[in-house]
Design brief:
- Helix 3 links the parallel strand 9 and strand 10.
- Strands 1, 2, 3, 4, 5, 6, 7, 8, 9, 10 and 11 form an eleven-stranded mixed β-sheet that branches.
- By secondary structure, the protein is an alpha/beta fold.
- It is built from six helices and eleven strands.
- The chain is globular and about 55 Å long.
- The protein binds hypoxanthine (HPA).
- The site of hypoxanthine (HPA) has 14 residues, from strand 5, strand 10 and strand 11.
């Protein structure tokens, strides 16, 4: 039986472990051919629509970015009937417009991660699972229609949002050196985070419409007005909490 449609799936990042406004919540945790997702998927209603929520790092934030089963997360949401996925990603800001507490909807990305399972195209040791190798187009890594819907919803809900920007995905879990951030700036990155990839690429391979809503938690190393600033988890969480205060209104409108 085809699963009932989910109008929007939301994947929450650091500091975003639940969607308090979800109502009539049903909880599911399907095991996929790629294994189990990071935690339970909460499905409920929001603004009259069916919305699913999954905490990317697990609800107790126990999974580091390089050990998240990105494939299982996306496949589980898809199996439950989701076609559109909005990823919430906590990030550091590199360029001027992306200071702490800014919300942004990037339109490009650069992948600096390594050693992560980053595709669904795979043949196992016994030669199973091959099939056709898919070289998906990824020139525009985020779904234009979903990005436009996010930006329109932000405007309608009167939530400030930067339209565009380049997300650089780093391996983590350590933060970056100042030289690494200086290089990323030269490469054209505006934002830096640890979970944007392989999630976005896998979503494209799976045929999902996927966009990123980045929440700037801190200036990336050496990028802010105080080049000697030390980034603490408490600062990150405080900024995320402040920046996401308007998120419920935005999601409801979306
Ligand atoms: N770098 C990488 N990932 C992050 C940062 C950062 O400065 N802040 C929040 N996530």
């Amino acid at each position: 039986m085809e699963p009932a449609r989910i109008d929007l799936a939301v994947i929450g990042g650091t500091g975003l472990y639940k969607l308090a406004q979800l109502q009539d919540v049903d909880t599911q945790q399907p095991v996929t051919r790629y294994g189990a997702p990071s935690g339970p998927i909460r499905i409920g209603t929001l603004g009259g629509r069916r919305v699913a929520f999954l905490a990317r790092h697990g609800e107790g934030h126990s999974l580091p970015p390089h050990q998240i089963n990105y494939r299982a997360n996306l496949a589980a949401l898809q199996a439950l009937g989701a076609q559109r996925v909005l990823a919430l990603n906590t990030v550091g800001g590199i360029t001027e417009r992306y200071g702490p507490r800014v919300l942004a909807c990037p339109d490009q990305l650069i992948d600096y991660t390594w050693g992560r399972v980053s595709t669904i195209c795979e043949v196992d040791a016994e030669g199973r699972g091959g099939g056709e190798v898919i070289h998906v187009d990824f020139g525009e890594p985020y779904a234009r229609s979903l990005r436009q819907a996010v930006i329109a919803a932000a405007a309608q809900a009167n939530v400030a949002m930067v339209d565009g920007g380049c997300y650089g995905a780093t391996q983590g879990p350590r933060l970056e050196t100042r030289a690494e951030i200086a290089r990323m700036r030269r490469d054209g990155c505006d934002l830096v985070g640890m979970t944007g990839m392989p999630e976005a690429g896998l979503a494209r391979e799976l045929g999902l419409d996927y966009a990123c809503l980045a929440i700037v938690a801190n200036w990336a190393a050496g990028a802010g007005p105080d080049p000697d600033e030390v980034i603490t988890l408490q600062d990150v969480l405080d900024h995320v909490a402040a920046a996401t205060a308007e998120l419920p209104r935005l999601l409801e409108t979306l």
